[in-house]
Amino acid sequence: MTKRGSSDGIQVNRNKKSLALSFQDPAGVEILHKLAAKCDILVENYIPGALKKYGMDYETIHKINPSLIYASITGYGQTGPYSQRSGYDVMVEAEFGLMHITGSRDGPPVKVGVAVTDLTTGLYTSNAIMAALLGRAKTGRGQHIDAALSDCQTATLANIASSCLISGEKDTGRWGTAHPSIVPYKSFETKDGDILFGGGNDRLFGILCDGLGRPEWKEDPKFVVNAQRVAHRDELEREIEKVTVTKTTQEWLDVFEGKGMPYAAVNDVLTSLTQAHTKARNMVVEVDHDECGPIKMVNSPVKYSETKPRVRRPPPMLGQHTDEVLREHLGLDDGEIQALRGKGVVR
């Protein structure tokens, strides 16, 4: 029952079947009720109360199948003053702190490059569903999961939220790729791109100094300990970048390889997807799609010692499996299915 755009669908709908029907028609609602009676989990992302008029709300479905896990994903939750607002990732990033702490130090607030709040909410919801299934194994009963983008965004403020709550003070704002209390810990321009260095303590800073060919910085009173480096942040970062722009990113990667200091190239997305480590971790797979031909997809990120997750079927076209689902799960014959299609109940 979730609504997705075409670009999202390629990623999130692998291993799924697509049944297309209208629940504005009572016959469509009847089909959904019959399916719900046989299901373990139902996920929906409509504004609270919107499904009640169709008989697809939690209370109705719970009576049909008391063991079903019913997960509602919304922008602002089932309760609260914002509950009737439509949920958009970028709005929630703005309203619940993330945008304020994202961006360059002196620049405007910016959103994260992907819909990160949508993604984290999906992950929180999947964890909640797994926990609810474990609970059902003990009690035999399902339950309603209320997952909101706003709540999940609040939770993922993590240590910054804790600092504000404990101190009672506002956060320190945007830091770009830098760290508010560790220097140097940010990206620096190179001859052909950017590289990120993590001089997280005095020993690591020493490795950085040696690699950059500036061992004298290790003894400089302005830089010798992290507190002094933070105090002289702007000066030190300027001096580092004067050096990093003299070599390419790859040349700096070669310099620090095996030295034990955190470092990383700042890669574009295509480079990230085609680099050696991504390939070694089998994070890109190719599958054959009936309509699109061979397509490449990002693989499941979690590896199991026993179970081997794989792409069993490519993302479906809308309504591709309508007939199959109705036959297999509800026992409808071809005539009944065609009659429903003729009335516009299914597609």
From TrEMBL:
<dbReference type="InterPro" id="IPR023606">
    <property type="entry name" value="CoA-Trfase_III_dom_1_sf"/>
</dbReference>
<dbReference type="GO" id="GO:0005739">
    <property type="term" value="C:mitochondrion"/>
</dbReference>
<keyword id="KW-0808">Transferase</keyword>
<dbReference type="Pfam" id="PF02515">
    <property type="entry name" value="CoA_transf_3"/>
</dbReference>
<protein>
    <submittedName>
        <fullName>CoA-transferase family III domain-containing protein</fullName>
    </submittedName>
</protein>
<dbReference type="InterPro" id="IPR003673">
    <property type="entry name" value="CoA-Trfase_fam_III"/>
</dbReference>
<dbReference type="InterPro" id="IPR050483">
    <property type="entry name" value="CoA-transferase_III_domain"/>
</dbReference>
<dbReference type="GO" id="GO:0047369">
    <property type="term" value="F:succinate-hydroxymethylglutarate CoA-transferase activity"/>
</dbReference>
<dbReference type="InterPro" id="IPR044855">
    <property type="entry name" value="CoA-Trfase_III_dom3_sf"/>
</dbReference>
<comment type="similarity">
    <text>Belongs to the CoA-transferase III family.</text>
</comment>
